[in-house]
Each structure stands twice: as C-alpha cells, then as structure tokens.
Amino acid sequence: MENQREIQLKAWCEAVTGYAQGPLQPVSGDASFRRYFRGSDGQRSVIAVDAPPQQERLDIFVAVAEAYRAQGVPVPEIIAEHRGKGFMLLSDLGSTLLLSKLQRDNAPELYRQAIDLLPGIMTVIKTAEGPLPAYDEALLQRELALFKDWLLERHLGLELSPAEEQLWADFCELMVSNAQEQPQVGVHRDYHSRNLMVLTDNTLATIDFQDAVLGPVTYDLVSLLRDCYVAWPTELVQELAEYARTLLQENNQLARTVSAEQWQRWFDLMGIQRHTKAAGIFARLCHRDGKDGYLNDVPRTLNYLVEVAAAYPELAQYHSWLNERVLPAWHQQSNT
Fold this sequence. Notes:
The chain is an alpha+beta fold. It has two domains: 4-91, Phosphorylase Kinase, domain 1 (2-Layer Sandwich), CATH 3.30.200.20; 98-334, Aminoglycoside phosphotransferase (APH), C-terminal lobe (Aminoglycoside 3'-phosphotransferase, Chain: A, domain 2, Alpha-Beta Complex), CATH 3.90.1200. It contains twelve helices and eleven strands. It has helices at residues 4-17, 58-70, 98-101, 107-116, 118-123, 137-155, 162-180, 219-225, 234-250, 260-287, 298-309, 316-334; strands at residues 25-27, 35-40, 45-50, 78-82, 87-91, 126-127, 130-131, 184-187, 196-198, 204-206, 213-216. It has a five-stranded antiparallel β-sheet, with helices on both faces. Helix 4 packs parallel to helix 9 (234-250), helix 8 packs across helix 10 and helix 10 (260-287) packs antiparallel against helix 11. The protein is globular, with a radius of gyration of 21 Å.
C-alpha cells in the first residue's frame, strides 16, 4: 500500500515529467532513510528518490554528483530535484550491481576498472557547497565507537574490564594515527561492489556518494578490495592494491617515495578501521532500525579483523582479545 510520501512523490514525478505514472516500483534501497523507486518519463526509465529532509540532505548529494561528473566520474544524471520535499529524479543506471558480476576469472579486470575511477574521485576535495568535511580524529573515533557501543555492548552484552578499556583505547589511537599520517584526498566513503553499477556497455558508474569527505588515500581502495560483502584471496587483493599504488604514482597523486610496504600497512590498518566501523553499523542496523539481515555480514568483518591483525606485532594483544573474548561471545550469541 502506498504511504503518503509515496503518493506525494508520484504526483511530483508526474508534474516534472508530464507523464502519468503507473505504480512506482520499489528499487532495492540502502542502509539509510532514502528510498528508491523506478518510474518513467514516457521515453525512458527513471529513478525517483524519497529522501526525507529531516534525515537526508539532497544539496550534498547534488553537489558531489556535479563535482564527480566534472572529473569524469560516471554518476546518475540529476533530472530534477525538490529539496524542500526531499524528492529527486535520477537517470536509471539499471539493476546490475558489480557484486552480481564478480567471478574469480573476471574479478581482476572488473576491479581494475573500479580502481581506474579513483583518481577522479580523489581529485574532488570541494563542491559547490564548499570544502568536503574532513575525516578528522573526532569522526574516526565516533566510527570506531560503533563497534564497542553497538556490537560489543548492545548486541553481545559484553562489559569491558579496565584492562580491556585500555586495550581498546590503544587500538583506537593506532587506527587514528594510521589514517591521519596518510595523504588526504577526496574520499567517496562507501566505495564497494554494491555501490558500483555495471552499465549496458559494461562500464561502471558509482552511486551513494553523498557522504564524501577529505580523508586517507587508501580508504576507498580498501573499501573496494576488502569489501564487507565479498572476500577475495589475499594474493589478489595485494596485487590490485599495488596496481592502485602504481596508478596513483603515475598520476602524481601519490609520492613515489611511498613504498609497497608502507602502502600495504596503510591499506591493512585502514581496512581494520573500516571493518570495525562496519561491524558496529551492522549491529546498529539490527537493533535501532530493525534490519537484522545485516548481522549475516558481521562474521566476514570479524574474520578480516582477526586475519589482518595477526600480521602486525603491535596488534598482538588486540588479536588475542578478538580470539579469546569477542569471537566466543559472537558464536555464543549466534547459537542462542
């Protein structure tokens, strides 16, 4: 049954397109308050977006889209918008997510295509709305806290001892330091296989970029290659990460003094930060928003934390804590 906002969105689409809409067809949404519907302008399929103004800002989406387009980054065309109502009409990029196309034999080439879009994204450090917000220490700490607040305490019911609190604080300090010592560039902030569309000509376009920030150079790369939704062999990930380092150095977007070893460390620890945040978000989506399906993605994020932490001596205590405290609590909770 259509709710009031859907009725209003449909009427607005008809006014904008001059075309009588049939029932708007829901399109797979995301983890935000935005909802997407497929409609028509009489000649082509279009995407109608419902973004309640109380929770979402269309001005940021529009500004980033325009800035990305100016740098040659393929994004949806903005056909019309009504910021007061929180409505937007976009070109339809289709329904084929990169995730659905990935196979072991084609993954290297598809990922190289996605990596080739990163220099354009990294170039965007400001929009018509002003400079991108900084991915600063406060934001990094808020993201890391999601893991402790929502996964450990709310979902698993863990109460940290003073020693564990200190271990957590030391871990967070290392994550923040790793992020801040990297070159700061334009960051999409959610660049992965569910936010990359495969178009009819087999090129890629990106969506869901409204949270763009100025942040660490490895952030989008690790988001792509250490995806929360699909895992690849370490050898392939490292090969593609090195492809990205070479590409950025050839584009003069990364100093040639950044060695493969330095790049890999930045990449690995950035991945730990992102997966820590993601695991917390998945738990929050379950408990706050009633989207318990996201809990299915938590084991992949926890496995990544354990696997990568094992390679760094400074994370030895953290690695032991994950194995001895967090994973057993997760398995116990999952079996109840």
